[in-house]
């Protein structure tokens, strides 16, 4: 199993880095440049025109890892990693449509929120139904740290699952706000699933291949996405990542682990919700200098220190890594005798 996980990591990195060498110049050539929001930090306007949709790199990489290192699993009838990949691809396709609309209209407004929500809900429900029919998940809610499983009615489980998946996908999307941030935050999340695979054993090997391949893909993408970024992942990449994180949490049958494992995504989302809600309630007052939270820190909120993009990368990546370790401690004894 270790060989497969390492193979997936290497394939993911090599494919992502290799694809990037051709994709970045191509995106620049066709002028697939990101339009920067007018309401964002003023210094971000210099990034306008930076190629977007670079998430194609790690999408191709994760797919290649599943079809190579995960080929034996497919031959033996194990399709968990393929279903996870498919969900992530569907979300990636939704993100691609969003990016395309932004590029077509030359503004930072793509699909309407309503259209995105309908597409995301449909994808989430189909994924849950497919995973349930294949026997990969059960309507039993595993509680990390307490190490207990609570059975709940299947319809309730499906509704909860759809809510968690859509919430996770959009939370990851919100985290993609400065160079390398979503990439650096998600690498520890994927490594968590790789370590869980190694610890829990062969039954989870195929899922580990997907997580390891995507880890390698993100590392390869970071070559181009680290500050100063030569390319952005776009909604194509961030929605794919959100789909992958959610899919793996359900495939390992422990969606509630996202509460600790995805703590950075949750903080980012809550900051946005709090900001909008407080702004409306107080008719114009703000809790944060700007939301999501990374922009608040970037603009010197609270302590007065204006965090650079590289500092934010280290802070968010380090926090994600810390909570990945904490999350592992919360599930490591799940199958202990």
Low-confidence stretches: none
Helix content: 55-70%
Principal-axis shape: globular
SSE ordering: HHHHHEEHHHHHHHH
Sheet of most strands: 2 strands, antiparallel
Counted beta strands: 2
Strand content: under 5%
Using only C-alpha atoms, the radius of gyration works out to 19 Å
Structural class by helix and strand composition: mainly alpha
Report the end-to-end length measured between terminal Cα atoms.
Answer: 22 Å
| Spatial arrangement of strands, main beta sheet | 1-2
What would you say this structure looks like, in words?
The chain has 337 residues and is mainly α. Helices cover 67% and strands 2% of the residues. The protein is built from 13 helices and two strands, in the order αααααββαααααααα. It has helices at 2-29, 56-68, 71-75, 80-105, 113-133, 154-175, 181-200, 205-225, 234-251, 258-261, 263-281, 293-298, 309-331, and strands at residues 140-143, 148-151.
Structure keywords:
2 strands
Topology of helices and strands:
Blueprint: H1 2-29, H2 56-68, H3 71-75, H4 80-105, H5 113-133, E1 140-143, E2 148-151, H6 154-175, H7 181-200, H8 205-225, H9 234-251, H10 258-261, H11 263-281, H12 293-298, H13 309-331
Antiparallel strand pairs: 1-2
Brief sketch in words of this structure:
With 337 residues, this protein is mostly helical.
């Amino acid at each position: 199993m270790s060989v497969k996980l390492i193979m997936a990591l290497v394939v993911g990195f090599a494919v992502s880095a290799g694809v990037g060498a051709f994709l970045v110049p191509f995106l620049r050539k066709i002028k697939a440049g990101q339009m920067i929001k007018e309401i964002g930090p003023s210094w971000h306007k210099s990034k306008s025109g930076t190629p977007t949709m670079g998430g194609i790199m790690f999408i191709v990489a994760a797919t290649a890892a599943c079809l190579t290192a995960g080929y034996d699993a497919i031959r033996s009838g194990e399709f968990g990693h393929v279903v996870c990949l498919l969900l992530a691809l569907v979300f990636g396709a939704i993100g691609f449509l969003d990016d395309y609309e932004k590029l077509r209209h030359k503004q930072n407004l793509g699909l309407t929120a309503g259209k995105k929500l309908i597409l995301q809900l449909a994808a989430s429900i189909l994924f849950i139904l497919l995973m349930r029919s294949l026997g990969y998940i059960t309507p039993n809610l595993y509680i990390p740290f307490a190490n207990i499983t609570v059975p709940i009615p299947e319809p309730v489980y499906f509704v909860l699952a759809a809510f968690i998946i859509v919430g996770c996908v959009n939370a990851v999307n919100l985290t993609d706000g400065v160079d390398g941030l979503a990439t650096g935050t998600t690498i520890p999340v994927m490594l968590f699933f790789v370590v869980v695979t190694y610890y829990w054993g062969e039954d989870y090997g195929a899922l580990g291949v997907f997580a390891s391949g995507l880890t390698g893909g993100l590392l390869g993408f970071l070559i181009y996405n680290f500050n100063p970024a030569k390319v952005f992942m776009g909604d194509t990449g961030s929605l794919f990542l959100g789909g992958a994180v959610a899919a793996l949490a359900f495939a390992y049958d422990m969606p509630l682990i996202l509460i600790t494992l995805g703590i950075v995504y949750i903080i980012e989302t809550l900051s946005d919700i709090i900001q909008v809600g407080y702004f409306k309630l107080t008719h114009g007052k703000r809790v944060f200098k700007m939301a999501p939270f990374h922009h608040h820190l970037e603009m010197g909120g609270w302590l007065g220190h204006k965090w650079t993009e590289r500092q934010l990368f280290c802070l968010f990546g380090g926090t994600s890594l810390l909570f990945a370790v904490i999350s592992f401690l919360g599930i490591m004894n799940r199958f202990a005798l």
